[in-house]
Amino acid sequence: MFGAATQAQAASPEETRFLQLYTQLKDPGNGYFSSEGIPYHSIETLISEAPDYGHMTTSEAYSYWLWLEVLYGHYTGDWEPLEAAWDNMEKYIIPVNEGDGKEEQPTMSYYNPNSPATYAAEYGQPDQYPSQLSGQYAAGRDPLDAELKATYGNNQTYLMHWLLDVDDWYEYGNLLNPDHTATYVNTFQRGEQESVWEAVPHPSQDDKTFGKAGEGFMSLFTKEANAPAAQWRYTNATDADARAIQAMYWAKSLGYDNEVYFEKAKKMGDYLRYGMYDKYFQEIGSAADGSPSAGNGKNASHYLMAWYTAWGGGLGNTGNWAWRIGASHAHQGYQNVVAAYALSDPDSGLIPNSPTAGQDWATSLSRQLEFYTWLQSSEGAIAGGATNSYDGAYKSYPAGTSTFYGMAYDDAPVYHDPPSNNWFGMQAWGVERIAELYYILASSGDTSSDNFRMAKQITENWVDWSMDYVFTDQRPVTDSDGYYLDQQGNRVLWGDDPQIATVPAPGEFWIPSNLEWSGQPDNWSGFSNHTGNANLHVVTKNPGQDTGVLGSYIKALTFYAAATKAEEGSFTALGSQAEGLAKALLDTAWNYNDGIGIVTTEERGDYNRYFTKEIYFPDGWTGIFGQGNTIPGNDTVPSDPSKGGNGVYASYVDVRPNIVNDSQWAYLLDKYTNSWNPQTQTWDDGAPEFVYHRFWSQVDMATAYAEYARLIQGGGGGPVEPVAPKAPANLKAVSGDAQVELSWSKSSGAEEYTVKRAEVSGGAYSPIATVTTNAYTDLDVVNDTTYYYVVSATNAVGTSPDSAEVSATPNSKPIPTGELKVQYRTDDTGENDNQIRAQFKVVNNGTETVSLSDVKVRYYYTIDGDASQQFNVDYAVVGSGNVSGSFVKLEPALPGADYYFEIAFAPNAGTLAPGEDSGEIQIRINKSDWSNYAEADDYSRDASKTSYADWDKVTAYLGGSLVWGIEP
């Protein structure tokens, strides 16, 4: 780990510009954020690329937001915006119950890891869908689910869903959390050829209100014997969650110290391992001959970051099912070696809590670096990737196909319209992270390991290649097809050190936009045997002015240059060139700042596709879109039989009629009417032009300034204007015998904490201790008296406000220490919702074997409105059918309890030998009218116990006698 530079100096232009861009992004008047505080994909709404509307957002945007706030924290010492960004992410785009009582994965507990999902083939054209849910290949076993349940108490996936309709433009509504305007939606579902122009946007929570009557939207994508059930389903883009973890790694390295959010990042990394698994958990490499084998354990893991993972389940009274898939296709642009390093290195402090997670990520780190080495062309660019399911259907590999750990080379994994590895941005994203790792390892003194050698080699070769095609104050000369030309007017194809012809262009920058690929890499047989891929080539094309890609590219150059200095003591020759180019690009880019962000005018030659009939609907399929229109509608054309379907095509406008209300629609329609030539398929009077303020793009540029200032100029981390700390958060109090144990989260910048106590809620409080750690045990208390506590934080500048108040009542009742004890935890952070969730383990603490059928466990709570209740066993190691429950009303009511539920065990639950435990038992109760419980004051509840711990407020009985715990 390494911290920021500490020398005192005036802010550099780059640091100043970072803070100016930060202000532009956060200014409410500039329109980057919604009323719920969510970053839009772009300020402008008429845009179609991955999101098909500007006021969508992606998990990518959230991950960039975290990165922005990390560097803001570094330069200002204010880390509160980082925590606010994570909180917003957890609230709106991680579909979990974040404490509001809304279950957004309501049936995940029914998931069977021995049968994760039903197989359906992928196809080359949208017209070949829906795909039959055939089960042709039985899914392998999911090896992660059990340990995730054991670690976190449930298996509700802690990952972002990739796409959010921020303002509910589609008008589907948020079914499972109607208090939120932002709505989970999805688009791409139908094979590698389905572009954004051919997708049908649909709700991720599909109760069949929209879509085809009785079927919803599911029957566009999959086919089954019966009508599809109502269901929820989410899809994760692995690169975004990995970037979020990458940001938290840098936060920790740069001085941020709130363990609450590091635990969240670790949990995200734990679940992100699903991105390492084949789609249907098939053994890696087993389908080379067209006959895949179901995986058994981790032989279904390729240890790379696949394109996605997905999970879902049922809605409604019959929704007692769930599923999960990985992905068989791995793209170079999605790998994140910094996240893998952070989640595996013992010094990072971010290794996840599951027992095998650290080793999985250590394997992934080396595997990702090998992947890049395998894919690096002889020029230095990185080719596409690999798949474990050829053509998406586990077809046999064509003869001569190059392989990587049994997976087949694919020059354009996942999508082909346009080819997924043609965009230069995929290069800059991936290699920038490898340059970071090169810098991290060099700074830590690791300059000899294979991981270091691969990171250095990949970055060095790539930087050497890319700089030949990047220019400031000059414009490269190209032909009409976008090929770079040399001084003699010849096309520059592959090869080293090309001499590109240029013309003077003061104030301009130009970077590549597209790449063309030929050949394939050599079969992979390890780093020590790799010889450099003499038969894999790239042609670099189409100079452009993509400011987002520019930001990533500058960071790649900056980290590379800093890494050479960390390794050698001074910049190498290539490192010096990289640093100089990074500086020149930053200076040039600032001239493109229009007061809202750094932007260029973009020519959108593909926007004729707003009007093209190409969205496929099968014959007879008709339904209702969220905006109220019938789809596909009456203005359709017959589908192309050569693409394998029998149906019709509609256009973007047919499906999304509200787009015509956009403020820029009239301009686009006029341009299309007067310039588009349908015969030549060209814009005779020029393509439409737009200026877009994409959030991720602006953050990429802002962080490029910040990282250059930090790494090259030693900016930040030095003297910042000191401020008083903020009030401590998450104050907790645990009662004991004549003592109260207090703990709280650290406050950034705090030097000491003052603990204050009162015997009346609200004070007045009297100071009882000053400590330098974030915990204190009050021993000066009397049992059966209630005490109220607050804590403040202090540094040289001043003292914070008091924390929120907590109370505790020490108790002298003895804790039985007999044959049993109960361990408890909960992930139910909602204090006012319609279910109580708790997890238990019964531990044999004695010297004799105990029959579980002789054991009872009681949990005490308040019902908050008498009603009949239901007892549910979501999961039990001893078998859910061997666990039962009953409800007992306490008369009179006791403090914190007017009911308890009692857990009992059937004879088939078995026995516990001395030292053994029952394994996890997940309990959930609800009232028959589904009214809320107010759990904050419940006797047996402790929301701070998110990991199993002995808990004396849950009691255990053996043969009817109390042997553990304290009754209220």
TrEMBL record:
<dbReference type="InterPro" id="IPR001956">
    <property type="entry name" value="CBM3"/>
</dbReference>
<dbReference type="InterPro" id="IPR008965">
    <property type="entry name" value="CBM2/CBM3_carb-bd_dom_sf"/>
</dbReference>
<keyword id="KW-0624">Polysaccharide degradation</keyword>
<dbReference type="InterPro" id="IPR027390">
    <property type="entry name" value="Endoglucanase_F_dom3"/>
</dbReference>
<keyword id="KW-0136">Cellulose degradation</keyword>
<keyword id="KW-0326">Glycosidase</keyword>
<feature type="active site" description="Proton donor">
    <location>
        <position position="60"/>
    </location>
</feature>
<protein>
    <recommendedName>
        <fullName>Cellulose 1,4-beta-cellobiosidase</fullName>
    </recommendedName>
</protein>
<keyword id="KW-0732">Signal</keyword>
<dbReference type="InterPro" id="IPR013783">
    <property type="entry name" value="Ig-like_fold"/>
</dbReference>
<dbReference type="GO" id="GO:0030245">
    <property type="term" value="P:cellulose catabolic process"/>
</dbReference>
<keyword id="KW-0119">Carbohydrate metabolism</keyword>
<dbReference type="GO" id="GO:0008810">
    <property type="term" value="F:cellulase activity"/>
</dbReference>
<dbReference type="InterPro" id="IPR008928">
    <property type="entry name" value="6-hairpin_glycosidase_sf"/>
</dbReference>
<keyword id="KW-0378">Hydrolase</keyword>
<dbReference type="InterPro" id="IPR000556">
    <property type="entry name" value="Glyco_hydro_48F"/>
</dbReference>
<feature type="active site" description="Nucleophile">
    <location>
        <position position="239"/>
    </location>
</feature>
<feature type="domain" description="Fibronectin type-III">
    <location>
        <begin position="724"/>
        <end position="815"/>
    </location>
</feature>
<dbReference type="InterPro" id="IPR036116">
    <property type="entry name" value="FN3_sf"/>
</dbReference>
<dbReference type="InterPro" id="IPR003961">
    <property type="entry name" value="FN3_dom"/>
</dbReference>
<dbReference type="InterPro" id="IPR036966">
    <property type="entry name" value="CBM3_sf"/>
</dbReference>
<dbReference type="InterPro" id="IPR023309">
    <property type="entry name" value="Endo-1-4-beta-glucanase_dom2"/>
</dbReference>
<dbReference type="Pfam" id="PF02011">
    <property type="entry name" value="Glyco_hydro_48"/>
</dbReference>
<dbReference type="InterPro" id="IPR012341">
    <property type="entry name" value="6hp_glycosidase-like_sf"/>
</dbReference>
<dbReference type="Pfam" id="PF00942">
    <property type="entry name" value="CBM_3"/>
</dbReference>
<dbReference type="GO" id="GO:0030248">
    <property type="term" value="F:cellulose binding"/>
</dbReference>
<feature type="domain" description="CBM3">
    <location>
        <begin position="816"/>
        <end position="968"/>
    </location>
</feature>
